[in-house]
Each structure stands twice: as C-alpha cells, then as structure tokens.
Amino acid sequence: MKMRDLFFRILSIVAVVEILVMVILGATGMKEGFGKNILDATLLSLLSAPLLYLFVVRIVVRHLSEQAELSKRILGEELELKAAVEKKELGVRLKSLVNNVPGVVYRGFRDWSLSFISAEVRILTGYASEDFTSGAVNWKTIIHPDDIEQVKRSFWKANREKLNTFRVEYRIRNKDGGIRWIEDRRQLFYEGSGTFSYVDGLLLDVTEAKLAGESLHSSQKMIDEIINAIPVRVFWKDRDLIYLGCNSIFARDAGFTDPKDLIGKDDYQMGWREQAELYRADDRQVIESGCSKLLIEEPQTTSEGKNLTLLTSKIPLHNSNG
After folding, report:
1. SS percent in the chain: helix, strand, coil, step 5
2. Cα 271 vs. chain centroid, distance in angstroms?
3. Cα–Cα distance for residue pair 30/73, rounded to 1 Å
C-alpha cells in the first residue's frame, strides 16, 4: 500500500469518528466541562496521528532503511576486500610455486611476446624474466638460427590441426653465447571462432640428456664399425634364442644384406635351418650353465647350399642386473 493511500485512509477514519462523537454530544446535550475537554483532546490526538506518522515515524523508518543499506554496503565491501586479499595471497602462492617448478613456465602470443615467464628463465638464458615481459628481449631472437624454421613449422602444424598440446626440441643461445637444448611443451588456447589466442608452456633444459644421447649414439656407431670390420662372424641372441643383432659378414652368410634384417628372427629362418636345433641346444647350455663354450666344431649349410665346418665360441652376456 502506498504512503499517500494509507494517510488518507487514516484521515477518513478519524473524520468519521469525529462526526460520530459530535452527533453523540449533540444528542446527549453535553456541556462545556472537563469531560468535553478530555473528548476534544482525544479527537485532536486522533487527528494528529497521520501527521505524526508522516513527520516522525516516516523519518525514523527512512533512517533505519538508510542504516540497513549502509550496513549492507559495508558488508559487501568487506567481502570484496576479503576476496581481493585471498586472491592476492593465492597469486603470491601460485607465483612462488611457478618459480620453484623445475623448468620455465610462460605465457606467449603469436608475435612471440610474453606476458609472463617464471624467474627460472635467468638460470636457463642469463636474462631476467622482466627482459622478456618488457619486450627488451624477444624469445624468437635467442632461438638457434638453424632451428627457428623447425619451431615455426611445428607451431603452424599444431595450429592448423587445432591441436591442444605439442612438444618441440630446439637450441637456444643464452646471454653468454652458450648453447642449450630446450624441450618446449606447449598448450594452445583458441578463441570461440577457432582463432589461436595464446599459449601456456613449460621449457625444460634437456642439454645434458641430449649430449648424453649423442655420446651414446657415437659410441654405438663406433662399436658397430669395429664389429663390422673384424674378419669373424659375430652375433648375439636373447634368452629365447631370438637374434638381437650381428655384424655384416654374419648377415651375408645368413642370406641378408643388412644386419638389421636378422633382428627378431631365429635359426629356423636362416639358411642353416637344418642345423638350427643343434645350434640352439648349444645356446641353451651356455645360457643355463652360465659357462662359455670355446672353439667348438659345428657344421653349417650356407644360403648357397654349401656345407662348412665352423669353429664357434659362445659366451653368456649379462645385463646390469646380472
């Protein structure tokens, strides 16, 4: 009910009561005196009630409403302040966590600019994180010139296929001119239209592993060259008597051009399949006993059908677990 309607309703009630009282006074013939003064005071109070409501009660109600609104606003501001403080504390904790990740966390864009990169980047590149986020140093400029096209192609392919994640390895040149190998693990984010938006990534320094792998590859290559150069047949099998490798001259005796062609095969698939069981029996004895058999005579039928007599030595090989 509106304030104005309530006022007029109260005023109407008071007027009706006043009229009724005047009628009663006229009918009873009440004269001037104490009783009539009391009655007049009562009627005056009734008449003044709407005005009292308008000028006193209404002011009090408005004041209480304003106080309630103020309290509500203060409570809302306190909640916002508390949320902001918690968000700031969370941001500090997340930043601390990111800066202690064993790698470099970053957020980048199509133009190679970075809005964030963790403090670990200084150890990796010699540059501070602010150097990259301010634009003083662009990540693209420290990628090795021989690898930049490969990195671009990897991104273009991932973007074209709308991949969410991909990895790419490349070299960077740090501030001191040294070369480091990087494994760049990227997660791509797209707009609703499918347009690339930004990338969150993790950079891992894989230099030591890369160098170790190259060293191992070089060692393996040298061993292969030595084995292939010696004028004797060399082969090795697993516990199931399946060929794991051999040198070139042994592969040619078996009827193959490349030693890799023997891998995964057994003696029944060789030119000497007629002697397969004899060879395998010797192999099992060496494996089970752990003892070598040296310079034993064995017959062999070659892939051309020739019959030969071989002097064979077989020794057990053990891995790091024995």
Report:
1. 55, 20, 25
2. 54
3. 60
Neighbours of 267 (CB within 10 A): 21
First to last CA, the chain: 96
The length of the chain in residues reads: 322
Give the integer Cα–Cα distance in Å for 273 and 40.
137
Return the C-alpha torsion angle 190, 181, 210, 219, nearest 10. Answer: 140
Helices (H), the chain: 3-28, 34-52, 58-99, 121-125, 129-133, 139-142, 148-160, 207-229, 248-253, 276-289
Write the pLDDT tens digit of every residue in 210-261.
888 888 888 888 888 888 888 889 999 999 999 999 999 898 888 888 999 9
Question: How far is residue 30 CA from its own chain's centroid?
Answer: 96
pLDDT tens digit sequence for 31-48: 555 555 555 556 555 555
- Cite the DSSP H helix spans in 100-147: 121-125, 129-133, 139-142
Q: Report DSSP state, residue 94.
A: H
Q: What is the pLDDT of residues 81-132, one digit of tens each?
A: 665 555 555 455 555 545 556 789 999 999 999 999 988 899 999 999 999 9
Rounded Cα–Cα distance for residues 220 and 212 (Å): 12
Nearest Cα neighbor of 104 from 206, 225, 226, 245 is: 206
